[in-house]
Amino acid sequence: MNQIHFEGPRRQDLFDAALRVLTAADFEDPPWLARHLLSRCLGITRAALQMDLQQEVPAGDQQRFADWVQRFAAGEPLAYLEGSCGFYGREFQVDARVLVPRADSECLIEAALEHLPHDRELRIADVGVGSGCLLLTLLAELPQALGTGVDLSPDALQVTAQNRDALQLSDRCELLQGSWLGPLVGEQTFDVVISNPPYIEPGEELGPGVAEYEPPMALFTEPGAALEPYSAILKQAQDLLKPGGWLIFEVGAGRDEAVKQAGMAAGFHWLETRKDLGGVPRAVVLRQVQA
Ligand SMILES: C[S@@+](CC[C@H](N)C(=O)[O-])C[C@H]1O[C@@H](n2cnc3c(N)ncnc32)[C@H](O)[C@@H]1O
Predict the structure, then answer these.
(1) How far is CA 288 from the centre of its chain?
(2) Which DSSP state fits 3?
(3) CA of residue 20 relative to chain centroid, distance
(4) How confident is the model at residue 207, as a pLDDT?
């Protein structure tokens, strides 16, 4: 680990030191990253930072910045350093208890908002709710909807609850601990099930820092079992969804066709597979047969 040393207390000194560490750690575009980290850490825009690089930085902020640069250089996601992450125009509090919301997952929201009716009450279940980015975004976008978030991890559910309260959605969102749709099976009253389940097999290649910092329960399945969460959810969703209800899955790269086929084999209609920002098929939209 590269230790960080500031030559002085000015913003310029902090920038220079970060630049040295990020360059040594072989990041792409260290000047952009150093400026970005420093502006986020000081809570100012990059333009404001640039305009006054001679300003002195208080000792507490210097210490926090040194900590950020070293953790970032070691691969920790920026969202964990900042404690929050933007998703579909809203801020979600995040830490190591939950997966960092991915911009690619926003295509599930786009698909949901296109397929779902906006003019009536909908009951939505999110399986593996994590930070709550999917469920809480849908509740915020669909003011008549009611939500239930399920997660196996009680730690993750604490973060979901913080976000639910911060977004003032407590009166429309309940949270339950349990496996997949287990806590809900038998109710047969849901209009929508949405899920971004863990779908990475041990050994698959991941971006820097992901396996080291993000919760294993949010990422990994057993070896050879990347489709098992989908099979489990499909089976339970058949009983849980109303006739004509929607089932929206996020899928790993290259798994869209397998999930679509599994959905059709379970008796669902396939409506759409939607690509993410990188052009990778990411959201599979299914529908329960109408009565
Ligand atoms: C890929 S993360 C998705 C988090 C969030 N929905 C998102 O899209 O960013 C998967 C989530 O599923 C949860 N999980 C893992 N196994 C589960 C299970 N058997 N039942 C319910 N949730 C589970 C994890 O704790 C994690 O929060």
Answers:
(1) 26
(2) -
(3) 31
(4) 85
Kindly state if the Cβ of 101 falls inside 6 Å of ligand 1.
yes
Distance 174 CA to ligand 1 centre (A): 16
β partners of residue 175: 149
**Each residue of 186-237: pLDDT tens digit?**
768 999 999 999 999 998 989 888 999 999 999 999 999 999 999 999 999 9
214: tokens are 């993000």
Judge whether residue 1 has pLDDT over 70. no
At residue 76, the 3 state secondary structure works out as coil
Residues pairing with 127 in the sheet: 150, 195
Ligand 1 in reach of 210 Cβ (< 6 A): no
Give how far Cα 173 sits from Cα of 117, 118, 138, 164, 254, Å.
19, 18, 11, 7, 33
Residue 86: other Cβ atoms inside 10 A: 12
